[in-house]
Amino acid sequence: MSSDRSRWVALAVLCTGTLMIVLDVTVVNVALPAIQNDLGFTQSGLAWVVNAYLIAFGGLLLLAGRMGDLLSRRGVFLAGLGVFVVASLACGLAGSQEVLIAARFVQGVGGAMTSAVVLGMIVTMFPGPRERARAIGVYSFVASAGGSIGLLAGGVLTQGLNWHWIFFINLPIGLATVVAAVRLLPRERSAGIGRGVDALGAVLITAALMLGVYTIVKPAAELGWGAGQTLGFGGVSLALLVLFLIREATARNPLVPLRIFRSSDVSGANLIQALTVAGMFGMFFLGVLYLQRVLGYDSLGTGLAFLPVTIVMGTLSLRYSERLVTRFGARSTLLAGLVLIGAGLALFARVPVDGTYLVDVMPATLLLAVGSGGSFPALATLAMSGATADDAGLASGLFNTTAQVGAALGLAVLATLSATRTEQLAGGGPADAAALTGGYRLAFLIGAALVAVSFAVALSVLKRGRTEPEESRGTVRDELPVHAGL
């Protein structure tokens, strides 16, 4: 097999592992009612089927990415796949609430290890600007559109078989990916442990992120942002984060070298991602509820409703994102995509109680799909633009961390505000379709506002770098310096 072909086959292996992790989130969401009925979860207890995964996943991404740099990204990826497959088996066999929640936490550990190093491996495998843009486009499609595929797969598996199979399906996929990864993923040079591992830094950042995600998904979502528990846990999380930054600034061999944040493109891209994902993730979650609770869709119909999103995002990410980034630059492509995402959310904020899919839902989702298909590959390119070969895993882990924190934060905030608005419109009585729709519309409008803020950040923070089109010559440069600020 030629060297060039082997790299693209290796990319397919990485994306298969990523797809399995991404699918797991939305597949589980669709199956939650069946899991609740079978294992006897209360409504609050059921949330831990999702929260246990999110806490482990979001808390370990940064650490896993850095350990990939220091030890081996290939090794961390393989270990993560192994942990995820074993935990999936335990989830599928779970006969009690406690076993399922514990197994979901372990799944989150494996998911973090697998996901954190993928972008780092991609940017080292594809050093050229054009092939890197194309490879990131493939990865971005898998990472973004996988959620829509998960809705459809979850509906098919849950209704056709039972909820256990949403976990069992990971076994053949995961094992095949492990075998292929062992044979096809290249061994890379790692930075090495050097004078030792920054154990204190590892403890501080993991504790800060896990506690932060817990605060968002538990007390903030259930008790409100002004509740004592929310403020207390949030304050401790921020204090741990400050201590971590102090530690990294003074440590001789820091776990996370702070130089990664010197690039305005890297810092800006991660902030933009957190804001954009916060607006979009709440939309997808509440959009599913709108289809099911207002328009009366079942889980399979909901999955089919989002299928056009997957098709459009796939077409853009796989065929056109590389051309757009190469021709217009990552910054310009991102700005155009954010405009379309904001327009789609604003259009969603007008959905009526008696809405129809073709008139009121599909146009908004297509705008979101086109915007996402163009903007997220550009965003990933910017986020990795300041990474050296020794820091690629760290930059990859950071990019995934901001996505997870943004998703958790967006879901907690938008779902809370939506529920509050629905209660107000219902006047203390049971929520009817009009009250539910009013709550969803407010959430969609706030999501559009978050994307507008991310557009302002992109416009003011991101710099036009050397990979932008050369207006004087009308061509694109062929080389991509490490710190070019795409």
From TrEMBL:
GO terms for molecular function: transmembrane transporter activity. Gene3D superfamilies: MFS general substrate transporter like domains, Multidrug resistance protein D. The keyword Chloroplast does not apply. Residues 10-466 form the Major facilitator superfamily (MFS) profile domain. Keywords: Cell membrane, Membrane, Transmembrane, Transmembrane helix, Transport. One of its GO terms (cellular component) is plasma membrane. The keyword Ion transport does not apply. InterPro entries: EmrB-like, MFS, MFS_dom, MFS_trans_sf. It is found in: Cell membrane. PROSITE patterns: MFS. PANTHER family: BLR6921 PROTEIN (PTHR42718:SF46), MAJOR FACILITATOR SUPERFAMILY MULTIDRUG TRANSPORTER MFSC (PTHR42718). This is DHA2 family efflux MFS transporter permease subunit. It comes from Nonomuraea zeae.
